[in-house]
Amino acid sequence: LKFNQAIKDQYSRLASTNRAERLFGIHPSSYAKLDQVRNEVQYADQLFSLYSQVNSSIDVLSAGLWSSVKNVPGGSSVLNDTFVTFQEYLSNFDRLPKAIRQWNSTLQLKSSLDHILLLMPLIILLSSPSVMPRHWLDVSNLLKRGSHLPFGFRS
């Protein structure tokens, strides 16, 4: 937001300068670097917006315990909705400009989305009332974390 305002201020000054140049019969100057900075700020704003949404959703998901999913009526439905939300994030990611696809933060965001979308179907299946009692103890023992295993996507 701060950088967007700074770019608007710069373009306002540019417009004023161009009007003065035209007034004195001078060909208005162009500032390609300013256009480049404006595009980069817009790209960064798009990326930051998506990154914030994804991280907020990951934080909410990571704060939940496995035991809370099994105790929630329709817990699998909540997880299915979450899975759909992350698929929408991936769709939004695919619509980001190609110019920013190789930025480190973009690659990190893609990696997080891929990781979550890989794990979510398994978590949804494990949260099924018919599967959870039989297999969750084995999963807990394997991971050595107990029956209150958080959805630790970042760990």
Write structural notes for this entry.
With 155 residues, this protein is mainly alpha-helical. Helices cover 74% and strands 0% of the residues. The protein has six helices and no strands. α1 packs antiparallel against α2. The protein is rod-shaped.
β-sheet strand percentage: under 5%
Query: Nearest-angstrom radius of gyration?
Result: 24 Å
Helix content: over 70%
Number of helices: 6
Mean pLDDT: 79
Distance between the termini: 31 Å
Question: Sheet bearing the most strands, described?
Answer: none
Element order, helices and strands? HHHHHH
What structural class do you assign from the helix and strand content? mainly alpha
